[in-house]
Amino acid sequence: MRPASPKRSAGRTLRPRGRGRPVRRWIANGRLFTPDGKEAVGHLAVEGGWIADVRFGPPPPPAEVALDAEGLWLFPAFVDVHVHFREPGQTHKETIETGSRAAARGGFATVVMMPNTDPPLDRPERFRAALRQAARTARVRVYGTAAITLDQRGETLVDMAALARLGAVGFTDDGRGIARSDVMRAAFRLARAVDRPILMHSEDAALSAGGVFRPEAPPVRRGVRPWPKVAEAAPLFRDVLLAAEAKARYHVQHVSTALSLEAIALGRRLGADVSAEVTPHHLILTAEDIPDVDPDTPEGRRRLGPYKMNPPLAPAADVDALRRALADGTIDLVATDHAPHAEDEKARPIDRSPFGIVGLETAFPLLFTALVRTGHLTLRRLVEAMSVRPAARFRLPGGRIAPGAPADVVLVDLETPRPVDPATFFSKGKNTPFAGRVLYGWPVATFVAGRVIYADPDRVPPSALRRFGGR
């Protein structure tokens, strides 16, 4: 984004310090977690795209400070292992360029794209083309998963070896489950052979049967087709058994019910290498929050569209279980499942509108406001779930603040409230159920390899942008 002149805002404006361009550029006076997990004011030196030094106590000499972050938190930039950037084939919804700008604004330095594009990323030439497009247009580090089966039909396995050589970080038919157990068994064995995880959208389509909301959602009483939780859990119980047998890495996507947590626990007891993610919306919204409106009217469709997601929102008891599971580590990490759609698509009749909501630009503020400020989750655990754990699980850069680590960091203001305004989103998608909600914890600046790739123009002056190579 273009640098803008700094203006006084409700929050504190960052101040540039010093002249020239020192070999080491310091971000000074930010709050960090110390190596032993405590909070302290600290200072971070960036050199050549890497973190060169981290200090606590007195700041460096003023002439060496490129950015004064007093009053802000400095975290390892976030890592999202589940995004839909819609390119190729659906660029009216999103592109890699617009999606990556949304990621940068949300504090993410690294994202992993899902392969359910049009056509899907199921062949080496398609996967290679997507990564080349990302290299040309992305603001953040963009990695990709490849499909498990050709055309995502759940029948014939892709050439995992060739796709792994091209850089696929894992394999998934995300958006669809795989019904055939023999195909899944073979997929786990092949994924282990190429040392890549299987990421699974757990859904038995015969059980979900075109459902839209959980049975507890008010629109179900008005005739909207229900989606039982067993449709998510049944294939998950199968897959943890297969993963344990194959000794393969298995990652469960967007867990939404307590029953699915039981399947994950079973897999771990059996020795399976299982990790799990949860989305912000499944941690915050419940089935009971869905508006009780007539789904057959234009106004009803408009209001219900932002609540249609896959898997559906669960009852409050399940949401409580998900929160506890994230807090105690049963659920390893947070992923947004960023799923942009055009406004007219989400306003279709509820049984024909697409599943999904956008999430990159609001993920951290939502979770900080709803869970950390209310005492359900510690700040350290939230940062771990959004940065440390996803980077480690998928062997991606970042996820830590330490000398020698990539200078992928984010500055966050935890004190200044601001409402969610979809009109300001960098994403093409505006489909969110959180419009108007007042949140704390908005990112102020995001760095990738020491370069500013997003800065709030009201908070970061152009001189600071120039010293960190911003645009």
From TrEMBL:
Its EC number is 3.5.2.3. One of its GO terms (molecular function) is zinc ion binding. Pathway: Pyrimidine metabolism; UMP biosynthesis via de novo pathway; (S)-dihydroorotate from bicarbonate: step 3/3. Binds 2 Zn(2+) ions per subunit. It catalyses: (S)-dihydroorotate + H2O = N-carbamoyl-L-aspartate + H(+). Residues 74-257 form the Dihydroorotase catalytic domain. One of its GO terms (cellular component) is cytoplasm. Zn(2+) 1 binds at residues 82, 84, 174, 337. Substrate binds at residues 84-86, 116, 310, 341, 355-356. Zn(2+) 2 binds at residues 174, 201, 254. Its cofactor is Zn(2+). The active site is at 337. Belongs to the metallo-dependent hydrolases superfamily. DHOase family. Class I DHOase subfamily. Catalyzes the reversible cyclization of carbamoyl aspartate to dihydroorotate. This is Dihydroorotase.
